[in-house]
Design brief:
This protein is an alpha+beta fold. It is globular and about 50 Å long. The termini are far apart. The N terminus is likely disordered.
């Protein structure tokens, strides 16, 4: 007989699951369409636009259940890593079937992996979470999210130098984020992270030069941009990774070029100084 030692620490969360049910309300979809000033307004029965599933199933807890940063405290579904800073670093999304506006949907979430590392930035914990969203017994969206927990950087730590964005874009679109955009996106996604709306906290506590543009907001804009570049295609898969933060009132550019295969696009967000803020790949199906 083999006896396996029980995992301790954040790794013990691997395999943890939770399930939520929610209606894909047309009013919330319309609110994000208006916030992003998109040309198409889906109505009940039509497919939910790519990236709009992040409007739904967010954790909403009592204020006493929030950390100093405005996020829900860890130790519930997400593991308690003992690290104060949290960042959604990227993810991989597969769109299997349309999720209709107005439909009742179920989201099953599972923690796939927890990895602890030590590097120049100190202790890091990487958590991979898989979400599956179904409606009427059909799997519509499958997603893996990469969440990173880290220590606060030392006050005298040098700022990382971001990589330069690629050249050779075939499509471009300028975006100028303002405080109202960030506030409304935070409100619609129930995102209490203070770096997006509390400037004193963002600058004095977390050391940013200004309010930070949400990574999922940029990823949603890139998915819509991919659809505009290939209006005849159906987005089947989208993979993205945040590379450097973007800040309020600083214009950035969505850019795209042909991908390595005929059914794909390479996309990225170029920061105001030419830096690579986010890179992504979109794959289209029939």
């Amino acid at each position: 007989m083999t006896v396996e030692a029980a995992m301790t620490g954040p790794e013990s969360a691997i395999g943890r699951r939770e399930t939520k049910t929610e209606t894909i309300l047309a009013e919330r979809v319309a609110a994000l369409v208006e916030t992003l000033e998109l040309p198409d307004m889906p109505v009940a029965g039509q497919p939910l636009p790519a990236g709009f599933h992040w409007l739904f199933f967010p954790p909403f807890v009592r204020r006493s259940g929030l950390g100093v940063d405005g996020h829900p405290k860890t130790g519930g579904f997400l593991p308690d890593t003992g690290l104060p800073r949290r960042m959604w670093a990227g993810g991989r999304i597969s769109y299997h079937a349309p999720l209709a506006v107005g439909a009742v949907a179920e989201k099953e979430s599972e923690i796939l992996n927890v990895v602890e590392k030590n590097g120049r930035a100190g202790r890091l914990v990487f958590v991979t979470v898989r979400h599956r969203i179904s409606s009427g017994g059909t799997l519509c969206i499958e997603e893996e999210q990469d969440i990173v927990y880290r220590e606060p950087p030392a006050a005298d730590a040098p700022k990382p130098v971001p990589a330069a964005a690629p050249e050779g874009a075939a499509w471009t679109k300028e975006v100028k984020p303002d405080p109202v955009l960030l506030f409304r996106y935070s409100a619609l996604t129930y995102n209490g992270h203070r770096i997006h709306y509390d400037r004193p906290y963002a600058t004095q506590e977390e050391g940013y030069p200004g309010l930070v543009v949400h990574g999922p907001l940029v990823a949603t804009l890139l998915q819509d941009f991919a659809h505009r570049c290939r209006p005849e295609g159906r987005l089947a898969r989208f993979e993205f990774r945040g590379m450097a933060p973007l800040f309020v009132d600083d214009s950035f550019t969505l850019e795209a070029a042909e991908g390595e295969t005929p059914d794909s696009l390479s996309l990225w967000a170029r920061g105001p100084n030419g830096e690579l803020a986010m890179k992504a790949e979109a794959v289209f199906g029939a």
